[in-house]
Amino acid sequence: MPAHDLSIQLYTLREHIAEDLPSTLERVADIGYTQVEPYSFVARADEYAQALAKNNLSAPTAHAPLLSSDFGEVFAAASKLGISTVIDPFIPAEHWQDAESIRATAQKLNEASRRGAEYGIKVGYHNHDWEISSKINSTTALEYFASLLDPEVVLEIDTYWVAVGGADVLQLLEALAPRVIALHIKDGPKSKNHKEQVPVGSGSMPIDQIIQATQGMLHVVELDDFAGDIFQAVSASRAYLVAEKN
């Protein structure tokens, strides 16, 4: 499969990264990943820069709490790491229950996008289940949110949390296109219990259909948690996706 189609969200390996970032990224590269999606990278930007270069890894996307951070600090660190899109990964559920709160969040993200453009960096948002289960004017809160965003702001759709939130993944992706530039690919029984997540291809998500419908898009493997060996899980996930995409 094309290397630019597959990445891994490093939050999946957060315990290992907290202990030893360089060796963790070395293991990621040994598994066969060529791209990663860092999280909370600002404080460790120099360390990330060294580890990425040493292991021939790139980071086209990354997560950072943009709306509660200093924009300049985030974008400067992203520039250092060659990150082209910074994605806010988490706005709590209480901010998605009414139109006024959603408009306020959209306004802040639009502001972040304008600042990011000064650095040549795009800005996006990553969903959980509550942006899907919450409804505004008979549509998902995420779709309402998307309608308020500047054209330059992108979305990274977490396909698993879309399903947990009660929506049809393929229909939502179609509704939000072409704003969607990346997907989080994860698997499991479509429950809120993170420990029940499993390697991609071994759960109940329609992974094959999702991949077929999103060829050429960045697919980011993620497990929020896992009951077994996490490195085995990310290795099995990559193996499945490589076979599926070929």
TrEMBL record:
Keyword match Isomerase: yes
Gene Ontology terms, MF aspect: isomerase activity
Isomerase found in the keyword field: yes
Pfam families (alphabetical): AP_endonuc_2
SUPFAM superfamilies: Xylose isomerase-like
Xylose isomerase-like TIM barrel domain segment(s): 26-213
InterPro entries: IolE/XylAMocC-like (IPR050312), Xyl_isomerase-like_sf (IPR036237), Xyl_isomerase-like_TIM-brl (IPR013022)
Keywords associated with the record: Carbohydrate metabolism, Isomerase
PANTHER family according to UniProt: HYDROXYPYRUVATE ISOMERASE (PTHR12110), INOSOSE DEHYDRATASE (PTHR12110:SF41)
Name of the featured protein: Sugar phosphate isomerase/epimerase
Native source species: Glutamicibacter arilaitensis
